[in-house]
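User: Here's a protein and a ligand (magnesium ion). What would the complex look like?
Assistant: Let me lay out the input and then the predicted complex.
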Amino acid sequence: MPGALNRKLFRDLLHMRGQVIAVALVVACGVASFVLLRNTYRSLLATKTSYYYEYRFADVFAQAKRVPKWIIPRIAEIPGVAVVQPRIVSLVTVDFPNVEQPASGLMISIPEKRTQMLNDLHIEMGRYIEPGKRDEIIISTSLADRNGFKPGDSISAVINGKWTRLQIVGTALSPEYIYEIRPGDLFPDNKHFGVIWISIEALESAFNMEGAFNDLTISLSPGANEQKVITMLDAILKEYGGLGAYGRADQTSNYFIVNELAELQVSGTIIPAIFLGVTAFLIHLVLSRLVRTQRDQIAVLKAFGFSNSTIGWHFLKLALLVVSGGIALGTLVGWYFGLQLTELYTEFFRFPLLEYDMSGQVLLIASLITFGAASIGALSAVNKAVSLPPAEAMRPEAPASFQASLLERLGLQRFLPLSIRIIVRNLERNVVKAVLTIFGISLSVALLIVGFYFFDAIDQIIQIQFKTVFREDATVFFNEPRPARTRYEIMSLPGVIKSEPYRIVPARLRNGHRSRRTALLGIDPNGELQRLVDKDFNIYRLPPDGLILTTTLGESLGVRPGDILTVEVLEGERPVLQIPVADLVNEVLGMSAYMSLQSLNRLLQEGGTISGARLMVDDAQASKLYGQLKLTPGVGGVLIPGSILENFNETLARTMGTSTAVIVLFAAIIAFGMVYNGARISLSERGRELASLRVLGFTKREISVMLLGEQAILTLLAVPTGYLLGFGLCYLLTTSIDTEMIRLPLVISGKTYALTFLIIVCAAILSGLLVTWRLRSLDLIEVLKTRE
Amino acid sequence: MNQPILNESQIGRTGEVVFRARGLSKVYRLGEVDVYALRSVDLDLYEGEFVVLLGPSGSGKSTLLNILGGLDAPTSGEVIFRDHNLIQADDRELTQFRREHVGFVFQFYNLIPSLTALENVELVTEIAKNPLSPQKALEMVNLSERLHHFPAQLSGGEQQRVAIARAIAKRPDVLLCDEPTGALDYPTGKLVLEVLQQVNQELGTTTAVITHNAAIAGMADRVIRLRSGQIIEIHRNETRLAPADLSW
Ligand SMILES: Nc1ncnc2c1ncn2[C@@H]1O[C@H](COP(=O)(O)OP(=O)(O)O)[C@@H](O)[C@H]1O
Ligand SMILES: [Mg+2]
């Protein structure tokens, strides 16, 4: 290619720097969101995998009542079993200084001397326990963080019926408790619950477990058949009160992580796809318009004898240069924000390590899509221009033939000032262009809606979960199921205004070959403190008989209302029951199974036994109540919804909030780039007209109104279409992000619509100001010298 | 159209000075070289006169006219329009000046393509203080039949006449025309010149017309010749010829 043409390329880029920057920014945002979300997902997956590997996360887990140690060799002989690690695990009541309410701790035994164990600890602060020191404990980092504990502090726990002082010597992370919740809960409340590791000797004597254990973790050798191992293990543990072994898939923490990552995978695929699609469309639009404004130059080049392919290549290079800049910037920004977001997630998941990797494949895909879109956009415009004979191409495109606009044909022209008539006729003259511009801006509006939607979804979940489902002030739960009279004892406690007892029983639900470990929750159908609420806020009343499953659980088991489920109760006499499914309820969270409390008690033939109660508490007497509960034997602890919400806000909400904020930022930049380019191209298309008006004595303000009025109308028209598109994209997201843990409710708040509108208006005003600033330097004489 | 030859008493050459330009220079810096578009030009334009500016391409005609019309600023020198000092005026004041006092006609008509002939004129009458009616202005350029045509539906000559109508509709003090016939064929060019002549006569608008066609000089009161940014001759015609009597 001739050097002169390259110089032209360079000067063109320089001359159109505003637009070049705007297009590059749009590309950058599309690529950045893609790189960011894909990187975060892949990195977290890699991090989880190596965390599990390096800290030897077990493959099979089992709990039982009391298993003699001599049975261990028999378990080790099961084909496929690599390492067997017996433990003593017990949920105990603890008393944290500074915490008003009684709390609970999951005590897990560890060897006195540090060895390579399964589910190994990563000591964050302090040290491992010392041999012979039975009062030394290591607590989970979350527990320490939420309560401000440090090595050297001490806590009390009820061990063997006696309050015992325990010394914190360290804090640790474990791959087994990444998501650290009390069995049966949905959200962590690490102010009132946490894992406590203590020497095996201490627990053996305290829980009368000498020569025995009640918990087993097993790692499998490569290629082992997990299901077979579980079946054989269950057979061995049956006579020792085994509760049914399970694999990683049913392990609580891993289950949540997998779901979290699945959600991230979907949003990390769909959102970047939307972004890149939108970006591709915008580049196509912008570049084809940009090339069209150079029609006359194309004609001149042709007249000079440059071949079509030379000219095509010239403009393609222009497009590719702009896009390359965007890709480079987007990759850097995406890489950086991806690292930040991954770090935030590792903090949320409490991964002790971080594997951040960026795959070349991600970059390649992003580049191909954007390059492709840019090339098609530029080439189709160039193609149109070069296919005309030069002489014709030097004339302005499409004879500027106008007609009276529709409004005027309706006889309304008297009400239309000339400036408006110019705008309306321009829009009507090139309806396709107007529609494309509107569509382009609509897409960026839609992206903003999608971004803000995540805030709405989280908010809605909080609203449903903490304001509609759980309305108690506190939940008290017991270490063991308690007899009916406890109901009255609770009512007589100070400050209890209302008490709604509940029963929770661990169980395995079975339908043919499908089964899920969960718990049956018996609650009062007329209860006010815990209710069943579907994702559209409809309150659902429990029927007197039969099971109510969440839709996710029902679907996972493949049951429908009317079907009979086999329920293996994993407690007490461990009866196996056949219970009809009364209905499914579409709750936002979890895989729960509900029954009326009465009917659950009846099925278990246990009178009025309860596991705990949801309480409405008189604020003035709350301290007194909690103080007394702390002293009441058998009380496992208290859960405070407010504290759970706080935990939720500090972790998940913050993590999701950050990624959402980044997405919103990108969407806002894309919106700006789109609106600005529209105005800027319009300026170059109509520069001559505007200069003529200036010569006639129109002020800058007056011509700005004429130029920007058109953009304003297009932008305003794009808002409602964008809202619709955004709603559609959100719908797409809710149907795709449908993990077992969470169902996103399809609610878009007025705030989202309003904020989106505000951002679009700001983008429009900002680009308007920038274009007006360009208008200042509109060279009247230069424009008038040349022929149209 | 056969206009009577006008004699001097009928035009305002003894009238007041409309423009007084002194020591006007315009220098373009192109890298290391200074291009002098105008070199210390002194010029007065009188009320109601018809002036033709002649000179080869690049001699500074457009530059001079653009400075007089408030579209451009000289590098040095001064321009007084009646009691306005154009050199000290800022952009807002220059815009106001053009809006109230100046009508421009260019080689390329620069009509607003999305407005009809009538609307193109209305555009100006809407913002002028004491305008002609748009219909009247178009009547003066003999375009009463084409009021609702869009520029694309008009011939070059018709478009130029709309441009003239648009320029005169505000009853400007001066009408500045930069090669108004440059893009037109011979008969159409003549028609346009006749319109200019007629406007000058009927409205008494001071008119300056740039051309490099010496034959047109015959219809002027005064002919100003430029070369290399300097006025080399000012010639006063004893009699003004009607455009119909010009030939080239
Ligand atoms: N924007 C500009 N930059 C540099 N030189 C210019 C510019 N405009 C005009 N000139 C130069 O000024 C001189 C006078 O130009 P102009 O007034 O347009 O001449 P005319 O109208 O008589 O043909 C020419 O030499 C021209 O090249
Ligand atoms: Mg000129």
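Summary: Chain A touches chain B through 31 residues (CB under 8 Å).
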